[in-house]
C-alpha cells in the first residue's frame, strides 16, 4: 500500500505531529491569555501545562537512559521550558488566590 508523503517525506506521522504541535500551541496561548486576564481557572491550566511538560521531560529522560539518541539543546530547552512553567504556576497560584485590592 502506498501512503502519500508530504514534500519532506514525513507522511502521515509528520502530519499528526504538526496537528499535535498546533493544538499544544493554541492551548499555551489560551493559558497565557487567561493568566493575563486573571481568570480563576488560569492557575489550574498553568499547573496542567507544567505537569505535562514535566511528564514529557521524564519520558524523554527514560528514552535517553535507555540509549536513545538526543541532543544537548533538547535537554537545555526542556529544562528552560520546565522552569518557566513552574515559575508561572507558582506565580499564578500566589497572585490569583489573593483577594482583590479595594477600589479607592
Helix content: over 70%
In angstroms, what is the radius of gyration? 18 Å
H and E string: HHH
Question: Count of DSSP E strands?
Answer: 0
Describe the secondary structure blueprint for this structure:
Layout (H helix, E strand, L loop, with lengths): L10 H26 L5 H24 L6 H25 L8
Helix pairs in contact: 1-2, 2-3
Features:
disordered N terminus, mainly alpha, 104 residues, elongated
What does this structure look like?
The protein has three helices and no strands. It is 72% helix and 0% strand. The protein has 104 residues and is mainly alpha-helical. The chain starts with 10 loop residues before the first helix and ends in an 8-residue tail after the last helix. It has one domain (11-96). α1 (11-36) runs antiparallel to α2.
In short:
The protein has 104 residues and is an all-alpha fold.
Amino acid at each position: 500500500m502506498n501512503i502519500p508523503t508530504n514534500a519532506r517525506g514525513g507522511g502521515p506521522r509528520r502530519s499528526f505531529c504538526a496537528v499535535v504541535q498546533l493544538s499544544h500551541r493554541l492551548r499555551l496561548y489560551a493559558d497565557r491569555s487567561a493568566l493575563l486576564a486573571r481568570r480563576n481557572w488560569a492557575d489550574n491550566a498553568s499547573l496542567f501545562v507544567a505537569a505535562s511538560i514535566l511528564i514529557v521531560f521524564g519520558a524523554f529522560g527514560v528514552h535517553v537512559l535507555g540509549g536513545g539518541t538526543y541532543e544537548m539543546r533538547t535537554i537545555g530547552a526542556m529544562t528552560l521550558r520546565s522552569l518557566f512553567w513552574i515559575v508561572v504556576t507558582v506565580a499564578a497560584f500566589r497572585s490569583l488566590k489573593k483577594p482583590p485590592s479595594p477600589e479607592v
